[in-house]
Amino acid sequence: MMNYLPAIEYETAPAPTASVIWLHGLGADGNDFRPIVPELKLPAEPGIRFIFPHAPSIPVTVNNGYVMPAWYDILEMDIDRKVDAEQLNASADKITALIDREIERGIASERIVIAGFSQGGAVAYQTALSYPKPLAGRKAVKTLTEMGYEPEYLTYPMEHSVSLQEIQDISRFLQGWLKR
């Protein structure tokens, strides 16, 4: 039996036909983005299963070794931002296991979005770009354009957080994707 990351699951309707695996940032947990789901104002159908996994608690070097939820250790915060690549890949493998479980539950890979905030975003990219099957949500501008996707780059006038406009844009993206 596979040992999956602990996670919060929320279904917008019975028998979902799509999944969003949404990764939190450094120091947070899966509860961080759960309250945003109602703010997305998604249609009742088709149903979406939101999965908010919890990162393990590990010592984080740049935070003086403080133990906190983290997808990987950050070794240095200089311009090159050195990270523990082995831990990053291990976290991506755990997210891959969640994707595989969603497929086993009957969700097509093309109906799975991988999303992440900050450190969770790095793991989401690592996972999505290395996953062997097509996923609905891969967002790396040049790479994706060459693969036939139509990426959209948006910026928001804010600090390291999430804004209402960003939530509305996520909702618009998900609603457009659900119509495909």
TrEMBL record:
<keyword id="KW-0378">Hydrolase</keyword>
<dbReference type="InterPro" id="IPR029058">
    <property type="entry name" value="AB_hydrolase_fold"/>
</dbReference>
<dbReference type="Pfam" id="PF02230">
    <property type="entry name" value="Abhydrolase_2"/>
</dbReference>
<comment type="similarity">
    <text>Belongs to the AB hydrolase superfamily. AB hydrolase 2 family.</text>
</comment>
<dbReference type="GO" id="GO:0008474">
    <property type="term" value="F:palmitoyl-(protein) hydrolase activity"/>
</dbReference>
<protein>
    <recommendedName>
        <fullName>palmitoyl-protein hydrolase</fullName>
        <ecNumber>3.1.2.22</ecNumber>
    </recommendedName>
</protein>
<dbReference type="InterPro" id="IPR003140">
    <property type="entry name" value="PLipase/COase/thioEstase"/>
</dbReference>
<dbReference type="InterPro" id="IPR050565">
    <property type="entry name" value="LYPA1-2/EST-like"/>
</dbReference>
